[in-house]
Amino acid sequence: MTSARTVLITGANSGIGLELARCFARDGDALVLTGRDTATLAAAAEDLRRAHGVMVTTFIAELGTDAGITALLGDIAAAKLEIDVLVNNAGFGIHGNFTTLDSAEELALTTVHLLAPWRLTKAYLPGMVARGRGGILNIGSIYSFSPAPWQALYGAAKSWLLSFSLSLREELNGTGVNVTILCPGTTLSRFRTRNGHHDRPSWFTTTSAEVAVAGHRGFCRSRALVVPGIASKFYVFGTHVLPTSWLGRYVYYTAYRLRGMPAPRLSEGKKS
Ligand SMILES: NC(=O)c1ccc[n+]([C@@H]2O[C@H](COP(=O)([O-])OP(=O)(O)OC[C@H]3O[C@@H](n4cnc5c(N)ncnc54)[C@H](OP(=O)(O)O)[C@@H]3O)[C@@H](O)[C@H]2O)c1
After folding, report:
1. What pLDDT was estimated at residue 258?
2. Ligand 1, atom nearest to 88 Cα
3. How far is the CA of 92 from the centre of ligand 1 (A)?
4. Ligand 1 pocket mutation, candidates 34, 36, 75, 142, criterion most atoms within 8 A of CB
5. DSSP 266
6. Please, which pLDDT band fits residue 3 given cuts at 50, 70 and 90?
């Protein structure tokens, strides 16, 4: 890959997205960052400009609605920015029994995890192919490889992203455009605290910076898949060797029992 690309990162005001922005900035790439909070996004952009001397453009974008995605595409077009690298990172999780979760929240989750990557890819991939360079870095999850009970839609969305990424990667073979999917496990970021989980660093957690560095390195080396951290690698290995009918229980034991966390019961509704 050549340097001085223009890299669009969604959800770049915190966590993995912000750390990926630091990685691309270290390469001298120009950044186009989206976030929903004006103050934190402006602070992140200023910090990146000062530390790395790169050009940083920011857009406030709500990607949980189709209208918000359309607005972002319009803003980028109006600014005449050519996107060389697209990082589909923005996302959030909802946790609880599917039967009782709020449909409006589920629609936003599906929109941010499926519709936004699809529409942004549709908009920017043809240009990358025409120029014969660039790529897409999608942020999946270890749940891309297994069911995710009590996060059923989230897990399904991340599985969709894995299939989408690997399919495009094969279609793009020989074009000079790369597609990589980064599949982290439990990563210390606001993603988890928003969901009510207050993890301490442990053998199964990774930091946002560790995840981003591994993902950026894998993307620059045109890897198909990056699973950062030994615990996540072990988890993904388990999904490949266990019978399909066991995978729901596998998640239950690894995500809840092993960590001493209670899984939500049907009577509890939306709980962490
Ligand atoms: N942390 C983990 O354990 C973990 C594990 C596997 C995969 N992931 C994936 O990693 C990605 C980044 O998550 P993170 O851990 O870095 O969490 P994070 O710190 O909460 O960052 C998520 C980013 O996405 C943005 N976002 C969320 N909902 C949005 C919406 N509706 N419209 C626009 N932007 C939205 C957030 O913006 P606001 O700050 O404005 O909300 C934030 O910038 C996500 O796709 C997540 O699914 C995380």
Report:
1. 82
2. 45
3. 5
4. 36
5. G
6. low
* Residue 270 pLDDT grade (very low, low, confident, very high; cuts 50, 70, 90): very low
56: in domain: yes
Greatest Cα pair distance, the chain, in angstroms, is 55
Structure tokens at 186: 């439990």
The pLDDT score that the predictor gives to residue 191 is 87
* 90 Cβ below 6 A of ligand 1: yes
User: Ligand 1 pocket, 199 CB below 6 A?
Assistant: no
In a domain? residue 166 = yes
Give residue 256's pLDDT.
84
In a domain, 163, yes or no: yes
Q: Which atom of ligand 1 is nearest to the CA of 14?
A: 19
CATH number of the domain at 194, please: 3.40.50.720
Identify the residue whose tokens are 């891309």: 144
Give distance in angstroms: CA of 91 to centre of ligand 1.
4
Burial of 79 (0-12, 13-18, 19+ CB in 10 A): exposed
Question: In this predicted model, what pLDDT tens digit does every residue of 34-66 receive, in sequence order?
Answer: 999 999 999 999 999 999 999 999 999 999 999
Q: Which residues form the domain of 112?
A: 6-268
pLDDT for residue 1:
47
Helix axes 15-26, 38-52, angle to 10 degrees: 20
Which residue minimizes the CA distance to atom 24 of ligand 1? 90
Whole-angstrom Cα Rg for the chain: 18
Q: The pTM is what?
A: 0.95
Domain count within the chain: 1
- Report the catalytic residues: 154
- Domain membership of residue 1 (yes or no) is no
Report the distance separating Cα 26 and Cα 44, nearest Å.
14
